[in-house]
Design goal:
The mean pLDDT is about 85. β4 (about 55-60) and β5 form a beta hairpin. The longest helix has 14 residues, at about 90-100. The chain has helices at about 90-100, 105-110; strands spanning about 15-25, 30-35, 40-45, 55-60, 60-70, 75-80. The radius of gyration is 20 Å and the shape is globular. About 15% of the residues lie in helices and about 35% in strands. It has two helices and six strands. By secondary structure, the chain is an alpha+beta fold.
Length: about 120
């Protein structure tokens, strides 16, 4: 029998974001930008640390602990040992999910004046 198991599906929905953070490794602080976020982890562009290393993500006056799962020259993927359930990073995730659910046409219509023309003629 073959013991191969297909990879498990991700437990959390990933959301595209643009959140500037500071990542604290063992010896240095590096500025980066979270571009993909979920309750279980994030992709951080502009920062890179060795795989399997531990780091801290500083955002909004709060620290979120993470473990580097993969790393490339200018980006890395991290997993949170404790799921995001509160705090500034969780609030930013919820805000991004809410904004992505609003259709662009609805945003345009909500900012449109109710009068006709530039001078407001009706």
């Amino acid at each position: 029998m073959d013991n191969f198991r297909p990879p498990a599906a991700r437990g959390h929905k990933r959301t595209a974001v643009a959140i500037d953070v500071t990542v604290n490794g063992v010896l240095n602080f590096v500025d980066g930008r979270i571009t993909d976020l979920s309750e279980g982890g994030a992709r951080i562009d502009g920062a890179s640390m060795p795989a399997r290393s531990r780091c801290e993500i500083h955002y909004g006056g709060q620290v979120t602990y993470a473990v580097v799962m993969w790393s490339e020259y200018d980006r890395m993927g991290v997993r949170f040992p404790y799921e995001l359930t509160h705090g500034p990073l969780y609030t930013a995730l919820k805000r991004a999910r809410t904004a992505s659910m609003v259709q662009p046409a609805q945003i345009f219509m909500s900012q449109r004046p109710s009068a006709f023309g530039r001078r407001g003629l009706s």
